[in-house]
Amino acid sequence: MKGWQDDGWSFFREQFGLIQKAAASVDARLTVVMFPFAPQFRADLLAKDKDYVLKPQRLMKEICGEAGVPLLDMYPVLKDAGGAELLPDRIHLSEEGHRITADALYEHLVANGLILAADSPGSAAMTETLNAAAAGL
């Protein structure tokens, strides 16, 4: 798995820098959402070497922190909600996993100022503007 190999992270850091530059060139703000792999929830693996099992999350947190890019690590969110049960084929989310992720992503985006909260004063006006623009397409 590339997530545990150091050479993969060197390449990722390089590519992440390019993504940041591209986003900055169009005044876009960047955020990262990271999903776990079901075996990362296995108690036996965590007991044996938790630091190694969660290495991808640790490295992503480090990279995003250095870059000032918000990170939503779904590992703790999904762990608290059922862990591997939410990844029935070990990779893809179940319907419940999608719901949990949508809620967490919404909170993350609001908390980081990337979207307005649904109940914020500007939200209704923004919705009207977007609906009017979509109607004109």
Rounded radius of gyration (Å): 18 Å
Strand content: under 5%
**Low-pLDDT segments, ≥5 res:** none
What is the number of helices? 6
β-strand number: 2
Q: Which range best describes the helical content: under 10%, 10-25%, 25-40%, 40-55%, 55-70% or over 70%?
A: 55-70%
Strand order of the largest sheet: 1-2
- Describe the largest sheet: 2 strands, parallel
Q: Outline, from the CA principal axes?
A: globular
What's the CATH superfamily, by name?
Answer: SGNH hydrolase
Q: Which structural class do the helices and strands define?
A: mainly alpha
What separation lies between the terminal Cα atoms?
44 Å
Specify the CATH architecture: 3-Layer(aba) Sandwich
Mean pLDDT over the full residue set: 91
CATH class designation: Alpha Beta
